[in-house]
Hints:
This protein has 202 residues and is an alpha/beta fold. The protein has helices at 10-16, 55-73, 78-81, 100-114, 125-128, 143-150, 165-179, and strands at residues 5-6, 20-23, 27-33, 42-47, 85-91.
Amino acid sequence: MATIARLKKRPDFLATAEGRRFHTERMTAQGRLRDPQAADGLRLGFTITKRVGHAVERNRIRRRLRAAVNVVASGLPGDLAGLPADIVLIARRPALTAPFEALAEDLRRAIPTVTRPATPRPPGGPRGDRPGKPGGRPAKTTPLQRDAGRVPAQPAASREPDIDPSQDRARGLRITDARRPERASAAPVATPNTCGGVPDGQ
């Protein structure tokens, strides 16, 4: 019969929170593999917060979970029971009134799940899977880009009419002359009369 030791130290609880998780309506299981050179065997701890209920209810949940652990430990295979792994059970309110067999079944499913070794990531990883990155998936094309590949691009229509360069220069000169401000009227030129003098008013 396999035995499961108690997990008591707070650093071990915090380290286990970084591992795998398994959720049910009645509990959440967290687990991690310890250093392979550490002592073999499963260690299990409980977290039952005040949000679950008052002290009497929390103690009842703890007793029910301990009894479920003892039942499940008797049926664990030897290779699983001997793993150097830590498990933390976080109880929820339904664990107070749930059928005992439901708690045991949750543990049978949770223990192998949270103690499974992490699978190595394939080459490329999350960064290599980004579109447009070397070795990743090709970037997605929009319908506009796909249409641009089928239909040759047409030059943008110009609003200016086609005008011969010579006509354009001539038109530019006419426009320039038309916009040129009128010159100030020239001062009257005094014209001497036949007597050699200047007539009055000039």
